[in-house]
Amino acid sequence: MNRRFHIKVCGLTAVDNLRDVLSTGVDAIGVISCPSSPRHVAAQDAAELLEVSRHTAPSVERHWVVRGVSLTELDAALSAGLPCTHVQLHGGYAQEAADVVRDHGRQPVQVHSMVDDVFPSVWPGIERVLLDTPGKTGGGTGRSFDWNALASWNAPSLEVVVAGGLHPGMAQEALLHLPEWVTGLDLNSGVETSPGIKSPERIHQFKTLCTS
Q1: What is the distance between the alpha carbons of residues 106 and 89, in angstroms, rounded to a whole number?
Q2: pTM, 2 dp
Q3: Distance, CA of 197 to CA of 200 (rounded, Å)
Q4: What is the overall mean pLDDT for the chain?
Q5: Mapping DSSP to helix (H, G, I), strand (E, B) and coil, where does residue 108 land?
């Protein structure tokens, strides 16, 4: 497979497991603050995980993944120096949230749940969009949306990441048929041993699937 994807592992909850994940050579990690998610980490604990990642692997992107976090809470955490590089905005956020993130020197990631093959209206200044599968908690469904729908979208002039249903047992052909403009893959439940705990072996297997 002659293609290089940017690989992120999301939903980390434990420091030792985070270090194991970083040892696999992933490009990005994510910590989720969403009270309805089984992988929820409060902002204070998220800061600890993100700081461990910054210290252990400074070149790896550190994503704070939020849903149901108010703009006031978002602003306060970033003002306090939450050591993330990106903020992934799930749920009912609008451009105002992206502006808050950008004002603090972080990169906002706009998230769009694929419903009825409708693609997002990208907010001004956004450099990366994540496409995922609709779910009650906003992600981590373990299911992919219909990737055939991607063929109807003209190649966008920004980075596009796909999430949902990614795991080492999937058919390599599915990845091969993703449009060339899909630059990243966001892993979560497909590489877990339990909610919030990732398997380095499964991550290695997935990376092998992407490069063999």
Answers
A1: 12
A2: 0.95
A3: 10
A4: 92
A5: strand
